[in-house]
Amino acid sequence: xxxxxxxxxxxxxxxxxxxxxxxxxFLEALGPxxxxxxxxxxxxxxxxxxxxxxxxxxxFARILEDPSETAMFIKALRTYEPTL
Length: 84
Fold this sequence. Notes:
Blueprint (H helix, E strand, L loop, with lengths): L2 H14 L3 H11 L3 H15 L5 H12 L1 H13 L5
Helix pairs in contact: 2-5, 3-4, 4-5
């Protein structure tokens, strides 16, 4: 999967769980600490691997590492509307 596909899947899943606004707020509040979150994701890959692929966790870590990517992800979470 490509990074964009992973992002879309995360957004759809968070929307279905009704967590999209909460996660967006959480990411905004953490701001500069997101880089530490990315490192935590990298370190947690062995634990996360039964739940998500290494590719997906690496893509999420990359989003957290780059403030512009994080901002785009937050915007996508806030503006997502499912297609009928």
